[in-house]
């Protein structure tokens, strides 16, 4: 009977050692899987960051184009107004110069 008890204790210890080995193997596998998942998540985060950065750059470029177009239109409108004023004053200036050169009565 003592032999049976010793045999069951030895078998239980052997099972405990085997369970411990399996637990170590499973823990190592879980650790390796976690590291792979960590790398995958990190790569995904990098790609997402690049995508968001690219979208932000594209939005900034679009906004700057709109601002440039607005400034260009304002400059063109201002230049057009100045040209119109200059054209009106050109005729006055020509008449004044002719009046000085020719004189009041058409003679020098």
Short description:
The protein has 108 residues and is mostly helical. The chain is 94% helix and 0% strand.
In terms of DSSP E residues, the strand content is: under 5%
Structural class computed from helices and strand pairing: mainly alpha
- Unreliable parts: none
Question: Roughly what percent helix?
Answer: over 70%
Most strands sheet = none
Shape: rod-shaped
Order of helices and strands: H
- Mean of all residue-level pLDDT scores: 89
Number of strands: 0
Distance between the termini: 151 Å
Question: Number of helix segments?
Answer: 1
**Mind telling me the C-alpha Rg?**
46 Å
Keywords, please?
108 residues; 94% helix
Give a written overview of the molecule.
By secondary structure, the chain is mostly helical. It has one helix at 2-102.
Helix/strand layout:
Layout: H1 2-102
